[in-house]
Write a structure and sequence with these properties.
0% of the residues lie in helices and 32% in strands. By secondary structure, the chain is an all-beta fold. It has a domain at 8-61 and 90-97 and 117-127: Elongation Factor Tu (Ef-tu), domain 3 (Beta Barrel). The radius of gyration is 15 Å and the shape is globular. The two termini are 30 Å apart. Residues 4-134 form the TsaA-like domain. This is tRNA (N6-threonylcarbamoyladenosine(37)-N6)-methyltransferase TrmO. It comes from Rhodanobacter umsongensis.
């Protein structure tokens, strides 16, 4: 067994599933990543313009789902959940590619491209690697 603990929370105007875009590029509002103070040193060197992968715990996801209609479209055939980006899955880990718009204080990033709900727990953040490693 292992433990995962949140390092922060998403602040977003997205409150309800039916109002949320299916993917980050589908007209998402700006959001904030607010980290617990103990993780401030881990945010060093993140700059506006950086692209990050934000891993979240999709706490509203249904963990009993193994097949879904992609993007919730009932006209599409059922697919195995592991071949989709559905938030409903046995371990509801979300992965979101975002762009940092601004650093707002020592523990807060304003980002674009995040389709996660308000108060979604943040599990980890990693840089997008474009051929050069950090």
């Amino acid at each position: 067994m292992f433990n995962v603990r949140p390092i922060g929370l998403v602040q977003s105007p997205l409150k309800l599933r039916e109002h949320a875009p299916k993917q980050g590029g589908d007209g998402t509002p700006e959001a904030r990543l607010v980290f617990s103070g103990e993780f401030q040193p881990g945010l060093a060197d993140i700059q506006p313009g950086d692209e990050l992968l934000v891993l979240t715990w999709l706490h509203r996801g249904n963990r009993d789902v193994l097949q879904v209609h992609p993007k919730g479209d009932l006209r599409l055939p059922l697919r195995g959940v592991f071949s989709t980006r559905s938030p409903d899955r046995p371990n509801p880990i979300g992965i979101h590619r975002v762009r940092v718009l601004a650093i707002e204080g020592p523990t807060e990033l304003r980002v674009a491209g995040l389709e996660a709900f308000d108060e979604t727990p943040i599990v980890d953040v990693k840089p997008v690697l474009d051929g050069g490693e950090r």
